């Protein structure tokens, strides 16, 4: 396995860096953990960096602080959905990761799936529940259409917040109503019975895939962040041919939604070894339990090298971050 060839710069070239963390989304706690881990890595490497929480001070303070660039570690709404990217672009502050369009598309699971589907990329069968005209009486028909085992996902939340796996029409109705607490649109997706994989992308290169195994009914918030029962396999156990196939699929999926800089694509594999795209993440977690650092380590990148390579994506032409 070859170490990825990533671009980084000397500490002084980055200038004064604001690590944007916290925010006011449902993923605030994870964002604080990710942001502080990234900030400490930058400081270890001699970068002039500091923490900036947009939930606690106005964003235009970045101008009076003479910030040269921003490293976005905000997860969820307000930080990962294009809003922060657009604001930074308006302020003419270079920033890391995907642009406005890529961020907005990736945050919306329904629109992401529709883009992938239009390009012939493999995704599971799905339906959409809209709070404005949801009819509980249709739950039985939805279960029949999607194979009687369904994943329920708020369209614009991350970290598995508001998600549920259901096996009956009654459970589906309850799960949809619960998901409506987080979003007016809910994705109802055929459950794929098989292993789950994730592929991280950094500066246009796919890192080794990771396979996740959890005793939970699915890879939920607790499995990701709160307990130690989840197992991670990297290398994931795929054959060399399948690994190459998955890397190509993840790269195509990321490019399809205008993802750039760095991110992560989540995938399921059924018992016929067919891959199905789940979702894209344009600001993945960077905590000690997070997946991108695990894949980077196997690829030969230290955490500090990974963080510098992420920060280096802020040198992309800001004028073109549309």
UniProtKB/TrEMBL annotation:
Catalytic reaction list: 2 D-alanine + ATP = D-alanyl-D-alanine + ADP + phosphate + H(+)
Cofactor dependence: Mg(2+); Mn(2+)
Residues that bind Mg(2+) 1: 266, 279
Enzyme class: ligase
Compartments (UniProt record): Cytoplasm
EC number: 6.3.2.4
Pathway per the UniProt entry: Cell wall biogenesis; peptidoglycan biosynthesis
Residues holding Mg(2+) 2: 279, 281
PROSITE patterns hit by this protein: ATP_GRASP (PS50975), DALA_DALA_LIGASE_1 (PS00843), DALA_DALA_LIGASE_2 (PS00844)
Keyword Metal-binding on entry: yes
Superkingdom of source: Bacteria
Manner of cofactor binding, per the entry note: Binds 2 magnesium or manganese ions per subunit.
Gene Ontology biological process terms in this record: cell wall organization; peptidoglycan biosynthetic process; regulation of cell shape
Domain spans labelled ATP-grasp: 113-312
InterPro entries listed in its UniProt record: ATP-grasp, ATP_grasp_subdomain_1, D-Ala_lig_Van_CS, D_ala_D_ala, Dala_Dala_lig_C, Dala_Dala_lig_N, PreATP-grasp_dom_sf
Residues annotated as catalytic: 27, 159, 290
One Pfam family of this chain: Dala_Dala_lig_C
Function, as annotated: Cell wall formation.
Family: Belongs to the D-alanine--D-alanine ligase family.
Name of the featured protein: D-alanine--D-alanine ligase
Organism: Alteromonas mediterranea (strain DSM 17117 / CIP 110805 / LMG 28347 / Deep ecotype)
Taxonomic lineage of the native organism: Bacteria, Pseudomonadati, Pseudomonadota, Gammaproteobacteria, Alteromonadales
Gene of this entry: ddl
